[in-house]
């Protein structure tokens, strides 16, 4: 217990080791700090959160690397959460997103943390939004979150972020299909990476045609930007697009709406976590349902009693 | 139960051979660990700062350049400086037998020489952490 208090104290002094230790606790045993976590969140939700998704190999990490440089030039501090897939078989993970960002390793105003997706569906578990809150409380101006990029479920990232980027490449013809299917219509900016390659212009036109009149749930038409991370081209255009989106949200009171929704979604994740944990500790109800002693509906009634005790 | 070992596999110095590092990174992942891989040509400063940001339990350094003594020395010094000497450091690569006691005197816990099976490395780490972290 004292160890946790010391960590929280060090965190408030902006100790980086405390920050990274707390992320580990969030990932492994969040219940240890659950009751005190809110103490850290005073005055938070000040950071600007950028979510980055897209298929594996689309260049998400390289893009984030260049965005870090651009934001640092503006004097902004940057926190990054990079999620890579956890193997369902072994529970292990190869976290390699950092390779592309190592030039920022010694910058005191940049903090990069790799996370395994663990139990989270589509790459976003409770740990990711909690880690984002923590980086926010630490005081980063910009927070970027890179998802595992396995497709449909990644829509969660757009709910977590202020501006959501979908990274596609001329090689990935499937992305258009995804957009048409409506799974990724909530992207705020579509980044066509590897724009130095053949087919980029064709893809750009295709997106323009498909998305020209599409508006997302709060009336914003996604901006399409061509980037080449290899040639370091298009980054200032992308930064400008992020600014345009930000201004749109400010002008249309979307910020408040997004933040309310985010709070609600975190509430549900926390409820889910708390209920599961309480029931695991109680033990009997879960066992009874598994063995068929009681049906799931009776289980709910019993569980509600346990939780409300 | 939920605790998962986090391991940083890094290649300091100038040699460009990362096959061994990648083999060990994959093996540790397959053993259920979270492996952070940072690629080639990392400075000791980058390695230690990365280890802190990633809150790893273990740093594994692969060195084939012959510069293992100064590189390990610097990494161990920096870890002490940052109060992170609780992180276990092991090494692998072409390291002469005679140099191993020198590296151990810096606080390097274990050196795996060529021919070591990945199984041995995994067993060593599992044994070291069987009673929990730190």
Descriptive report:
The complex is a heterodimer of chains A (309) and B (134). Chain A has three domains: 1-40, no CATH class; 42-252, P-loop containing nucleotide triphosphate hydrolases (Rossmann fold, 3-Layer(aba) Sandwich), CATH 3.40.50.300; 260-307, no CATH class. Chain A has twelve helices and eight strands. Chain A has helices spanning 2-12, 16-29, 31-34, 60-73, 127-138, 155-160, 174-180, 200-211, 235-251, 254-282, 284-291, 296-308, and strands at 48-54, 78-84, 93-95, 110-116, 142-146, 163-168, 189-192, 223-226. A seven-stranded parallel sheet of chain A has the order 4-2-5-1-6-7-8, sandwiched between helices. In chain A, helix 1 packs across helix 2 (16-29) and helix 11 (284-291) runs antiparallel to helix 12 (296-308). The longest helix of chain A is centred in the C-terminal third of the chain and has 29 residues, at 254-282. Chain A starts with a helix and ends with a helix. The mean pLDDT of chain A is 89. Chain B is an alpha/beta fold and 134 residues long. Chain B has five helices and five strands. A five-stranded parallel sheet of chain B has the order 2-1-3-4-5, with helices on both faces. Chain A binds chain B through residues 16-17, 20-21, 23-24, 27-29, 86-87, 90-96, 98-99, 102, 105-106, 111-114, 116, and chain B through 2-4, 6, 25-26, 28-39, 42, 45-46, 49-50, 52-55, 82-84.
Topology, please?
The complex is a heterodimer of chains A (309) and B (134).
Chain A: H1 2-12, H2 16-29, H3 31-34, E1 48-54, H4 60-73, E2 78-84, E3 93-95, E4 110-116, H5 127-138, E5 142-146, H6 155-160, E6 163-168, H7 174-180, E7 189-192, H8 200-211, E8 223-226, H9 235-251, H10 254-282, H11 284-291, H12 296-308
Parallel strand pairs in A: 1-5, 1-6, 2-4, 2-5, 6-7, 7-8
Chain B: E1 6-10, H1 19-30, E2 34-37, H2 44-53, E3 58-63, H3 68-81, E4 88-93, H4 100-106, E5 110-112, H5 118-128
Parallel strand pairs in B: 1-2, 1-3, 3-4, 4-5
Helix pairs in contact in B: 1-5, 2-3
